[in-house]
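Run log, item B.
One chain of 262 residues. Sequence copied directly from the ordering sheet:
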Amino acid sequence: MLRRQRSGQARQALASSLAVGLLAALLALPAGAGLLDDDEARRQIRDLAIKTNERLDTLSKGQIELANQIQALREENARLRGQVETLTYELESARKRQQDFYVDLDGRLRKLEQGPSLDAKPGEESKPLAETPRKPASDPAAETREYESALNLFRANKLKEAAAAFDSFARAHPESALTPGAYYWSGNAHYALRDCRKASEAHRLVVSKWPANAKAPDALLNIAVCQQELGDSKGARTSLEALVAKYPDSSAAGTARQRLKK
């Protein structure tokens, strides 16, 4: 409404200005040349007013079209912003589901790893006494609680605290059956914190010290991912090839084969 009022006011002002200019031009003609008759003067003023109105209409249409385009761009920007927010939420949800899956898988693997050790206790009586001194110093139940506490931090997305907790566990319990998992999850936490160097260091310890551990294939795959992100494409390819060669039947090896094809 305000735009129409302004457009009408501008049209009237321009028409009045042109009319005044035309009358001034007529009055300025030499006396011998004669004056145009009233009909001719009115016709010229009318034609001039029509042209002026046409120009104003064109200008108004252009302004309206521009305003419509700006509004359309605003709506498109809002739509894209909504899509970005939706995709961000879905990505975060997928990451959380994957994180929960790996935490659950870690628990299952630990149960499998701890099973044989419990069954082997009766047979340990025949082992030499020199092999037993370290075991009384460890408390498996306390270690499990400490490990679970670190996992809960990771599950709660408290990545910095989780990385510190896993690192502390690994230093305090170097001989624990849970230590490979501690290094593995420490590497994952550091990677999520965008610290690929520390992540690679933790995963390399898993691969080098516990190559038979169930987490070793995934640790080697994570090393390749970090190498790629750090710009070491050659090193990443070498790690992927080593993964396929050492752990051909693992799911991580399947992922490595797909990446090697690219």
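Observations after the first pass:
- The chain has nine helices and no strands.
- Residues 144-262 form a domain with the Serine Threonine Protein Phosphatase 5, Tetratricopeptide repeat fold (CATH 1.25.40.10).
Flagged for discussion on Thursday.
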